[in-house]
Amino acid sequence: MKALLIFLSCCCCTGLTAFAQPAGFDKKLADSLGADAYGMKSYVLVMLKSGTGNPAKETVDSLFRGHMENIGRLAKEGKLIVAGPLKKNDKNYRGIFILNVKTVEEATALLQTDPAIKRGVLVAESYGWYGSAALPMYLPYHNAIEQQSH
Q1: CA-atom Rg of the chain in angstroms
Q2: Dist CA 123 CA 52 (whole Å)
Q3: DSSP label at 148?
Q4: pLDDT tens column, 84-128
Q5: What is d(CA 100, CA 78) in angstroms, rounded to the nearest whole number?
Q6: pTM for the full model?
Q7: DSSP labels for 61-111?
Q8: In sequence order, which residues have a C-beta less than 8 Å from that of residue 74 and are 6 or more positions away?
């Protein structure tokens, strides 16, 4: 009987630790970032491809200035978490965005504010993506190491 009680006590204690939060868990931070129980959340991943629009060079330069300004605006608003070009590839992918929105529809609305996308110089393919809710936290560090702005 004593052995049974010890066994059951061990099972209960072990079972309870399975529901314990990891050491260092910060509920306030997790909530502020919109994290689920796994520290994750939904985003939208955007793959930017070369479009069929082929305006004059001066127009392309102007559209890409607007594209970069739009990236800056969306980042300041907290809507754009990651942006960057891709190296030359056979799929005509030009860059990626990770948008801090939950749906492709929300992403589509934001993408329509980009002049290069509106004019067809870039085409956006959007996909739901599930990643770390802490992803936006790198942005202040990037600003601290950026010597030159685009």
Answers
A1: 23
A2: 8
A3: S
A4: 999 999 999 999 999 999 999 999 999 999 999 999 999 999 999
A5: 7
A6: 0.81
A7: HHHHHHHHHHHHHHHHTT-EEEEEE----TT-EEEEEEES-SSHHHHHHHH
A8: 80, 99, 110, 113
Q: Which two tokens stand for residue 57?
A: 């060079």
| Degrees, nearest 5: CA angle 142-28-39 | 65
Q: Domains along the chain? A: 38-135 (3.30.70.1060)
Say which amino acid occupies 55.
Answer: P
Encoded tokens for 13: 């204690």
Say which amino acid occupies 62.
S
Contact status, residue 40 vs residue 132, Cβ threshold 8 Å: yes
3-state secondary structure of 49: strand
- 34/42 Cα distance (integer angstroms): 9
